[in-house]
Write a structure and sequence with these properties.
With about 120 residues, the chain is of the alpha+beta class. About 35% of the residues lie in helices and about 25% in strands.
Length: about 120
């Protein structure tokens, strides 16, 4: 899965190898479908130093469809309420099942995470 991307971006071989190991471990433990990676976690796993290196790495993983971007609406009480493919899909109001109330969604309620493609 990572061989094409490593050949395209040899300067990122180490970081990509670390991410590949992490995702393979999650897959072998059958937890890949539940895995949500935020940018900070991707940076910790890949051990890249700068935000620009992280941006390049995420861009490569998205372009090769290893990861896909997901927008999560967070409850003010903590935890995710719903997930969407893009910000455009997020409704203005959403039922917060954690607090059992309707919430008006604001930009501060949104979080971007990445999930592994099957």
């Amino acid at each position: 899965m990572f061989s094409n991307i490593i050949n395209r971006a040899p300067s990122n071989t180490k970081a990509l190898g670390l991410l590949e190991e992490y995702l393979e471990s999650a897959a072998s433990q059958k937890r890949l479908d539940k895995l949500r990676l935020d940018p900070k976690l991707i940076q910790q796993i890949s051990k890249v130093d700068s935000s620009s290196e992280l941006a390049v790495l995420i861009s490569l993983l998205l372009s090769e469809q290893i990861l896909r971007r997901v927008v999560v609406v967070q409850s003010p009480a903590g935890g995710g309420v719903a997930e969407f493919s893009s910000v455009d899909e997020v409704p203005a109001d959403l039922h917060d099942h954690i607090r059992d109330t309707w919430m008006h969604v604001t930009p501060s309620d949104l979080r971007t995470v990445y999930v592994a493609e099957s």
